[in-house]
Specification:
This protein is α+β, with helices and mostly antiparallel strands. It contains 2 helices and 2 strands. It has a two-stranded parallel sheet with strand order 1-2. β1, α2 and β2 form a beta-alpha-beta unit.
Length: about 70
């Protein structure tokens, strides 16, 4: 939970990414993506990107965990 004075986004990052950047992007499949985080977050972002037509080779990550 963020501190009281936090004014940035909260919640699952893949939902924030989709709603604020990718939902209206003309060609998300033409971008490369790099992320780092725990396995559960990475899996959620990868699924979202694949659902948008992004090839797995355009998704790079550092896995912070198991």
């Amino acid at each position: 939970k963020p501190e009281e004075n936090w004014t940035g986004y909260t919640g699952f990052i893949h939902e924030v990414l989709y709603e604020n950047y990718l939902k209206d992007h003309p060609a998300p499949e033409d971008c490369e993506y790099y992320m780092c985080g725990p396995p559960m977050m990475n899996a959620a972002v990868i699924k979202m990107l694949e659902d948008l037509g992004v090839e797995r080779e355009n998704i790079l990550l550092d896995d912070f965990g198991g």
